[in-house]
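Hi R.,

Here's the chain you asked about this morning:
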Amino acid sequence: QVQLVESGGDLVQAGGSLRLSCAASNLIFSRFNMAWHRQAPGKQRELVAVITSAGNTNYADSVKGRFTISKDNAMKSVYLQMNNLEPEDTAVYYCNAERIFLGQKSDYWGQGTQVTVSS
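And here is the predicted structure, written out as tokens:
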């Protein structure tokens, strides 16, 4: 079955950087839109960044200029480079793969990786 495995979460001080990785298996990676979402304690899950199958990117306003999403189709991996981290970035970060084909949506999620930013 499809698997998305995140890694790279850690405890970091404010102003620091982290790079999250998500390795996908058992899906035609290049045909999927890939995204990072996050969920902080007591809050709803929110979209952080997305990269489409064509390579177009979009970001939440709160992370623009600080986070960069990228992907490697050959490695079936998507990355999130996070710079100038803030305590408000503390959350579990989830990798998501989504595709709509012939009117049917395929939607897969990883288990998440914890990012904690201390002040």
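One quick note: The mean pLDDT is 97.

Cheers,
M.
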